[in-house]
Amino acid sequence: MRKIMLAALLAITSLTFTVVGQVGALGSSFVVTTNADSGAGSLREAITLANADPGSGVGSPHVIAFNMPSGSTTINVLTALPVITCPTTIDGLSQPGATCGTAGVARRLLVHIRGRGNALSMSGLRFSGGGSTLQGVAVSFFRAGNVISTGPTGGDIIRCNHIGASLVGDVDTIASNGVAMSGGPAVTASLDISSQNTRIEGISHTVGVCGGDCNVVLGESNNNNQIGVMLRFGALSTTLFNGYSNPVTSVAAGGTMHGNFIGIAQSGQNVPSRFKTSRNIYAISADSASPPAPAVPQPIPSSGGYLMGGLTGTGQRDPFAGNVISGAKFRDGFDSDTAFGSGSRRLEQHHRRQWQQRHRCHRYHEQHDHQEQHHRSHSEPDCER
User: Fold this and answer.
1) Residue 269 phi/psi, 5° resolution?
2) Please, which of 130, 137, 191, 194 could form a disulfide with 92 given CB 3.0 to 4.6 Å?
């Protein structure tokens, strides 16, 4: 059986954001002034107008801002929103009073984009043009994925969001609304990445809670085939996952994911067991299956050196860069398939125990460095600092 591991080195960079992650002149600006599903001033109209405006490019995106009354607002999406086909920043932090949270200042997200659960199978925000940013929103209750980053250009930035979660960063899933996940697609991934060099940011989260750039990512159900974060390292011809396939030109190679809360609420509290997703992070590779398992785990060739959490470029542990990953309900917190569609296999037995051991080490160090009480380990496991 093939054994897989993702690289765990992270080069920490200091980013100063106006509109996060973008440089150069901006494209056009569109302001959402109503929580209506459609019509003048709606999010749907803003996306449609941005797609039709040729004035954006990588490094000079359009900006969709919010200026709605009543502070916190939910946009109930009745039919699928247009795919975002050109570089665009969706900036929930532009809603007056919104903040990601910093030391001494609590996070306050005010824009909630919400689907219809099982009533209509559709995706939430789907980016395909590359060079886009999503920040400062909650996106949840979409049966075919809440946030999808795809396309050959890549370079999207996802920061300071609650994905599969409510405005306060707690559960807002199909299961928590009293119904089970049913119908197609067979598998729902809350955050689905198949674009290269996409950054799931989270360096500056506040000790013990998800603040700053940190994203909260929760799965949409406790069913056996629901996923928090899905990373596609290869083309998939099947529409089993979120109802769409991705070509070989669109893969998650070269990206980063660090400093996020995955499967755990913004407050640092564990999600109730009955609402936990089956797998918090799921990586699919189209690489050919290897010979019988070697003595040590092997990299995923198609991953392009994907960097996940925890260490600085010099190999020193940086507690603010580590992802906090709560245990999944039915399967591993981290799961991988290779050669999907041609005899793929999940990680099992020895390597799964190795991952759980590494996860226990991560949880122990998080507890002692962050003093997070929700981690339950009381003595250091047998692992290296």
Assistant:
1) -90, 145
2) 137
